[in-house]
Amino acid sequence: MMRPRSANPILRSAALLLLFAACSSGDTDGTDNAVTNPGPARPDTLDVFTPGNIFSPTSAEIRVGGTIRWRISESPDGRGHNVIFSGNAPGKPADIPIVKGVVVPRTFTRTGTFPYTCTIHPGMDGDVVVR
Ligand SMILES: [Cu+2]
Questions:
Q1: pLDDT band for position 41 (cuts 50, 70, 90)
Q2: Phi then psi for 33, rounded to 5 degrees?
Q3: Does the structural domain 45-130 have CATH classification 3.40.630.10?
Q4: Is residue 61 very low, low, confident or very high in pLDDT (cuts 50, 70, 90)?
């Protein structure tokens, strides 16, 4: 004859399942989905704009394998902008020549901080932090 205690693990499992289901169904805005079910790793894509003579955001953070898209508009002086990376860090992407009205992507395959500047406009600086 089975002892009553033998059902306890099953009941405990059922209770845990119900608890999990209750927690999951509480997610109404969908923001938790990436945490509870990340799926395959996917790189971030982030846009950096040039409103006037600044890069926005000034510091852009992405995951390894992520892509920054510089959306380079015409500068107030009509000359456009460039993106020149400093240093020789491994994974440093290719510089972007003087352009305007274009979107130029660069993918970052190594972690690190990659500072850059627009050499046309003094003080127009930014960096990409790859984590
Ligand atoms: Cu510039």
A1: low
A2: -60, -40
A3: no
A4: very high
